[in-house]
Amino acid sequence: LKDYPKAEAKPDMEKLLKNGGRFFLSDICLKEAEKDRLYRVYDASGMFVGLFRFDASKKVFKPEKMFLQN
Q: Whole-angstrom Cα distance, residue 33 to residue 15?
């Protein structure tokens, strides 16, 4: 998984993120994202949430694989 770039979500995105929702580039701590690239996404506390793919045509990140812990 280390081959995928790391992205950290902003604190107000935690609930949406953990429910597998889509989110915008402005909702995470990245200046830009590569088209169709997978990213390791972490919540604001640093907990790994899953892999999300950036859809450049819609400018959103979509969940690919969630790795939530109970």
A: 22
- Cβ atoms of residues 39 and 62 within 8 Å: no
pTM of the predicted structure, to 2 decimals: 0.89
User: What tens digit of pLDDT does each residue of 40-69 get?
Assistant: 999 999 999 999 999 999 989 999 999 977
DSSP 6-67: EEEB-GGGHHHHHTT--EEGGGBS-S---TT-EEEEE-TTS-EEEEEEEETTTTEEEEEEE-
Q: How far apart are CA 19 and CA 8, in angstroms?
A: 16
For residues 53 and 19, give the distance between their C-alpha atoms in angstroms, rounded to a whole number. 16
Spatial separation of the C-alpha atoms in residues 29 and 54, rounded to whole Å: 14
Residues β-bridged to residue 61: 23, 54
